């Protein structure tokens, strides 16, 4: 019974090692030349500490929404690809129809200029 | 392993519509010209093809009940007839509002595509045989309607209306989903016909029965929101008033058919054995809607808002038909009552199309016909339009020989047959209250002097002809109601 948990223990140990060792090695072996900019916390695109009610460009939303839309289809494509051999032509055609509908949306956003920043 | 192919032919209307809507979106991207002539014509063609496909399926199945997609989808006469009705309603709405939309710069490919996708949502709802299919259709419809309301994005009123509609709509969807999850928990299935089978075998007063009734309460709440009956009506006046009139015209018509289909699928197809439970809830909703709808409408000065309250009252009246189907576990009255409710819904959609269509028609460039004063002295300015509006108002009030009268009569006779005399009396009294504000419109049109500032009419000829046909159709249906009533009967019998 207990022996069956051994792979999990191994997994935890390896996971810890992979997580910890590079950080320790980096701290020990890497060059240290700190400056205030490097020591400040990193957050993409924004100041880390300021009023949350600030204005920012609405184009972020557009890009984010479009990204999510087209990113999610991958979630459908992976399982589909894994069992493609079993679901046959019907499964293949179903996914092609789904992708075709997505392409309609893609052509629309492209032509409307939603992909251009300026 | 090969998957057996589902019967795609049954879903032909939806397939045609989906392909058409996608093609329209692409077509419009590459179309030139300000008036969008090509795109509007394209949308008309898609609607025509959808109607043809629906007729084709209707003739193909010969009215037989048919399921496909592993029981997720049902094609029966009710679904197919309602689909034809909804397609017609959307087509008419588009025809009425073309010039209005163009004048306001709203006639874009997006509007047309959203209209078609909304219609697709309604069709999916009408053919749903699974709670999931139903929800899918409902969300497709609702999301399109939210965007349509917000289409005029520079108008603060429209934006506010869209925001309210969206937030409340999301809440209602949540309630509905919660109810569905309870039904699923009690029966272990999402297929509506299977739910019905499970409910029929259920012991009274078992734990599952409690679960089910709990779920039904939430289902009814979600349903009541979509129908817009009291106390889930708060969004209706604001959305009807805030949306551009052409969009109100769409929201107030075809989706009512879909909401009726949804009510029938959930309550009649799925939960008929629990009728004793849900009929009580519908009684409360119905009486409250008729009272609050009719009485509040009197105080309105905005015609769109007045018609919004009138919608609430009418949907309350329609519920009377739905709630008098089963009497003491006896289903003898069911076909009459549900057919009467369906007839009422169809006639209401026609009246609403006409009334909002007329408002759209009377609005000109830079002028919105939406206050009661705007209708003053219409008879002197354009007698024919005033006459059609008169017919519409008489029909909404239920004055014979218009269709509104016969619709009210058939619902009331179903209510009386169910032994609910007091409900029938209340309904008649509240309809009398309602007659006041419809007749006030008639008085304003015929006996008041036109305002100095009233602009000249500039309506299109096509829209005028169609509006006249719409108004006269109500008169014809009122005098010869049997064909439409017969169709409703066939539809309900096919369930």
If you had to describe this structure to a student in words, what would you say it looks like?
The complex is a heterodimer of chains A (118) and B (495). Chain A has a domain at 54-118. Chain A has 4 helices and no strands. Chain A has helices at residues 6-29, 36-39, 59-82, 84-111. Chain B is globular. In chain B, helix 7 packs parallel to helix 11 (254-270), helix 10 packs antiparallel against helix 14 and helix 13 packs parallel to helix 17. Chain B has one domain (8-493). Chain B has helices spanning 12-30, 37-61, 77-103, 109-126, 131-149, 156-187, 192-200, 207-227, 235-242, 245-251, 254-270, 275-298, 303-323, 334-362, 378-381, 383-397, 403-417, 421-447, 461-479, 482-493; strands at 66-68, 73-75. Chain B has 20 helices and 2 strands. In chain B, strand 1 and strand 2 (73-75) form a beta hairpin. In chain B, strands 1-2 form a two-stranded antiparallel ribbon. Chain B is 74% helix and 1% strand. Chain B has 495 residues and is mainly α. Chain A binds chain B through residues 86-88, 90-91, 101, 104, 107-108, 111-112, and chain B through 1-3, 5, 18, 22, 25-26, 29-30.
Q: How many β-strands of chain A, per DSSP?
A: 0
Strand residue content of chain A: under 5%
Mean of the pLDDT scores of chain B? 91
Oligomeric assembly: heterodimer
Radius of gyration of chain B: 22 Å
Strand content of chain B: under 5%
Distance between the termini of chain A: 63 Å
Largest sheet of chain B: 2 strands, antiparallel
Beginning-to-end CA distance, first to last residue of chain B: 34 Å
What is this structure, in a nutshell?
Chain A has 118 residues and is mainly α. In chain A, 68% of the residues lie in helices and 0% in strands.
Q: What's the layout of helices and strands?
A:
The complex is a heterodimer of chains A (118) and B (495).
Chain A: H1 6-29, H2 36-39, H3 59-82, H4 84-111
Chain B: H1 12-30, H2 37-61, E1 66-68, E2 73-75, H3 77-103, H4 109-126, H5 131-149, H6 156-187, H7 192-200, H8 207-227, H9 235-242, H10 245-251, H11 254-270, H12 275-298, H13 303-323, H14 334-362, H15 378-381, H16 383-397, H17 403-417, H18 421-447, H19 461-479, H20 482-493
Antiparallel strand pairs in B: 1-2
Helix pairs in contact in B: 1-2, 1-4, 2-3, 2-4, 3-4, 3-10, 3-11, 3-14, 3-19, 3-20, 4-5, 4-11, 5-6, 6-8, 6-9, 7-11, 8-11, 8-12, 9-10, 9-13, 10-14, 11-14, 12-13, 12-18, 13-14, 13-17, 13-18, 14-16, 14-17, 14-19, 14-20, 16-18, 16-19, 17-18, 17-19
